[in-house]
Structures are given as C-alpha cells and as structure tokens.
UniProtKB/TrEMBL annotation:
Organism whose genome encodes this protein: Paenibacillus odorifer
Matching PANTHER family: ENDO-1,4-BETA-XYLANASE (PTHR43772), PUTATIVE (AFU_ORTHOLOGUE AFUA_2G04480)-RELATED (PTHR43772:SF2)
Name of the protein in question: CBM6 domain-containing protein
Matches recorded under Gene3D superfamilies: Galactose-binding domain-like, Glycosyl hydrolase domain, family 43
Similarity comment: family membership: Belongs to the glycosyl hydrolase 43 family.
InterPro entries membership: Galactose-bd-like_sf, Glyco_hydro_43, Glyco_hydro_beta-prop_sf, Glycosyl_Hydrlase_43_Enz
Alphabetized Pfam families for the sequence: Glyco_hydro_43
Record keywords, A-Z: Carbohydrate metabolism, Glycosidase, Hydrolase, Polysaccharide degradation, Xylan degradation
C-alpha cells in the first residue's frame, strides 16, 4: 500500500508512471477513457488547495497520455463560473465522467443548483467536438434532482446505446440515455444485487460481461467492490472487494483497457496527508480465467511505458531565472556552476515576475517550473496575467541544490510576447532555476 508520504521525491525523467501520477495539482475521482486519437484521457475532480472539505472542488482539468507514463495537463475544461444554473457560491464540482457519441464529447458532472447544496444536486452536461478543450455547458439532465445525485458514469455500449449510472448515500441508479445524450429514455431504476454500495459507480464491459465497480461504506477507509451482469442495467451479481483502503477516507476509480493492458485509476492522499487533497494513481488490474478481478496491488512505481516517449514540444521556450525580476525578500543567487536561481520566495511580500513571455498564437500553454527543494512538500502560487492558478505542489528533490524538480500546469496565455507570470511562495523554501512554456496544439 502506498500511503507513506515521507519518501515521495520528484523525478524529472520517469521510467514508470510513479504513484501518484499527477503531482503538481491535486486530482481525484479519475474517469479514464481511450478515444479514437489513440490516447488515453483522465477526466478528474480537482481538489483546490487549500481545501475546505469538498466545498471548494472546482476547475476540472483533463490529462492525456500516449504511453501511460508521461501525462499532459490539457488544462481546465469547466469551472463552476461557467455553469449558469449552478449554486451562486460555486465550488462543489464533484466526480465527473466523459462519453463520446456521434462526433461529440459529453462531459457529465455533479453540481448543486442551490446554496442548499446537499438537496439540490443535478447532473450537468457540457459538450465539445474535442476531447479536452472547448467544452460548453448544455444545462442539466431534466427530471432528476436532490440528495446524493452524484458520481455520474456513462457507458456507451457496442450497439451505441448509452447508459448512465450515479448514486451516493447507499443507492445506485442506472438508466438509458436518449440519442441526444442529454436526457433519459425511461428514467432511472435502482441497480439490484450490489453489496454495501456507497458511491463512485463505474461501469465497463469485457468479453460481453458488464462490470459495476463502486466504493463501499467501510468507515473512513472505503474499499472498492464490484459486481457483474449480462445486462447493462442488471440485476447484478456481487463479486467482492478488489481494492483495499488507500489510506484516504474516500475511494473512487475507473477500470480501463489501453493497448491490451487493463488498469485501475484511483486516488490516494499520499502527497498531502489530507483526505480532501487527493492525487490520482494508476496500477495494473488483472482478471482471473473466470472473469473475476484479482485484488489490485497499490504500488509507488505505478505502471511501465506502453508506447514511445512523446517528443519535446518544438515550440517550447525556456526562460532562465536570471531573466526574471525579484521583489521583496526574493533573491537571485549564483550557484557554483555559474547558473542563477531565484530563492527566498517564501518571505512575506516576496515575488518574482517573468515579463514579456511569448504566448505564440495564444490559448493553452503548459508552464513548467524547474526547481530544487529539500522540503518534503513545498508550494508556490502562480498567477498568469493576474489569473490565479495557485497552488502548485513542488515535491522534494532530495536537496536544496538538486534542480531535478518539475511542477507544471496548463494555463491560458495571450498571443505574442506580452504575458506576465508572477510567482510567490506558497509554502516552504524553494529555488527556481528556469521556467518553460509550451503551447498545446490541438
Ligand atoms: O470527490 C468528491 C466525492 O468524494 C466524490 O463525488 C465521491 O465519489 C468521493 O470521491
């Protein structure tokens, strides 16, 4: 089990995916899908740091990979600010899923419509022609609402019929979606045969058999259980526990096949030590001859590469720390190697500015900070053209002069060399040696 948070050290070149696999920001409730572009995508919740229970979860990010080891942050695809019908205070963007049908990606997410969040859950749907950008909210699925309407999951079957599942508070419901993917054909019915269902429904199909995985009710230490059926809407036959506690009070995951290998995507709290600041992990999932699932072994190594390492983005630009302006107590120091780094960011009122950053044609760009820290977990605040992308994690590099650390986030930039990055200390001593910017190309 991987919940010892003392020895997580960042590695700039990963041989395996490592767990957690996404470390720069906190992500949870991963729903993974393989789309026709040959890549695998994770649609995850975003635990905003610092957390306030699950209230502040917002700004969904999507991650993609060609090889299971290198994951690209595709950027933010939807926030509560984009949801006109949502609760006025925002937040509460909980566990989502995405489905593809007839040339459109449908992003399903649970969100309350009222300040009284617990009784006003709805399932919103945003759509796009692309898997990880340009989503527009289409409103919520009519005819549903209220307590525990959370954790939607959508299966598009081989015959192209689509089924939605959701539930919390011990009840799991399922129903068929209409062709429009935005409404239900015959309403929802309770899924029968599940044992100790809590939340986090996920349905997949293998060799003609449907599998429904879910979180159970083990107090403060949910496990993942599953059931199978020959029909997408059950009745289900309970099959057992396949993921023991991860050390986090919640558990939530998805089971997916990519390039002939099955994986479990799940979350733990090994970076933060806090149940509301979770991190996505990946481990192998195997089946027995009879189709039952073998218990998943939680590892720190994660999974091996299953493809070629992506090439370095040809548009990547590097800005050395020597190029930035420092304010407050922040300092530019010269290392023995002659390289200059920015340090003392954590001092009150300190900040650094990278000015005139080239944004190319504008739009999505990955910002990556190269750093060193001997802290177990340092953090920085990042503002791009005054928009707040904080906080970013900076895991230990094993030494204050070891500049192997990488923390990144995909942001929106303006066209041309007119962008400004401001970085302030969030927590702990950290030195930054350079910043890179790579535009994301669709
Ligand atoms: O992430 C918020 C909630 O925690 C999800 O909806 C549940 O499944 C649990 O992971």
């Amino acid at each position: 089990m991987s919940n010892n948070n003392q020895d997580i050290i960042v590695e700039s070149k990963k041989r395996t995916s490592l767990n957690p696999v996404i470390t720069s920001i906190y992500t949870a409730d991963p729903s993974a899908h393989v789309w026709s572009d040959g890549k695998i995508y994770i649609y995850a919740s975003h635990d905003m740091d610092p957390a306030r229970g699950c209230d502040l979860m917002d700004r969904y990010h999507v991650f993609s990979s060609q090889d299971m080891v290198n994951w690209v942050d595709e950027g933010e695809i939807l926030s509560s600010d984009d949801v006109a019908w949502g609760r006025p205070e925002g937040g509460f963007m909980w566990a989502p899923d995405c489905a593809y049908k007839n040339g459109t990606y449908y992003f399903y997410y649970p969100h309350p419509s009222d300040s009284n969040w617990n009784d006003s859950w709805k399932i919103g749907v945003a759509t796009s022609k692309k898997p990880a950008s340009d989503f527009t909210d289409q409103g919520y699925i009519p005819g549903l609402g209220g307590f525990a309407l959370i954790d939607p999951c959508v299966l598009v079957d081989e015959d192209d019929r689509a089924y939605m599942y959701y539930g919390g508070g011990s009840t799991c419901l399922g129903g068929e979606l209409n062709e429009d993917m935005l409404s239900l054909k015959n309403g929802m019915t309770e899924m029968e045969g599940l044992e100790d269902f809590h939340e986090a429904a996920w349905v997949f199909k293998r060799n003609g058999l449907y599998y429904l995985t879910y979180a159970d009710n083990l107090e403060d230490n949910n496990r993942m259980r599953y059931a199978t059926s020959e029909n997408p809407l059950g009745p289900w036959m309970y099959r057992g526990i396949f993921l023991e506690p991860t050390g986090c009070s919640t558990t939530h995951g998805s089971v997916v096949e990519f390039k002939d290998q099955w994986y479990l995507f799940y979350h733990n709290q090994s970076i933060s030590g806090e149940g509301n600041l979770r991190s996505v992990c990946i481990d192998y999932l195997e089946f027995n001859e009879d189709g039952t699932i073998k218990p998943v072994i939680q590892t720190k190594e994660g999974v091996s590469s299953i493809g070629t390492t992506p090439e370095v983005n040809p548009y990547l630009k590097t800005y050395p720390a020597a190029d930035c302006m420092v304010f407050g107590g922040a300092e530019i120091q010269t290392l023995e190697s002659g390289q200059q780094v920015v340090s003392h960011l954590q001092t009150e009122g300190s900040y650094v500015l990278f000015n005139n950053i080239e944004g190319g044609e504008g739009g999505r760009a990955s910002i990556e900070l190269h750093y060193a820290t001997s802290e177990r977990l340092a953090k920085v605040n990042l503002y791009v053209n005054d928009k707040d992308y904080s906080l970013l994690n900076a895991l230990s590099t094993g030494g204050a002069q070891q500049f192997s650390g990488r923390t990144n986030i995909t942001v929106n930039v303006l066209p041309g060399a007119i962008n400004t990055l401001r970085i302030t200390g969030g927590h702990g001593e950290i030195s930054i040696i350079q910043m890179t910017i790579s535009p994301l190309v669709d």
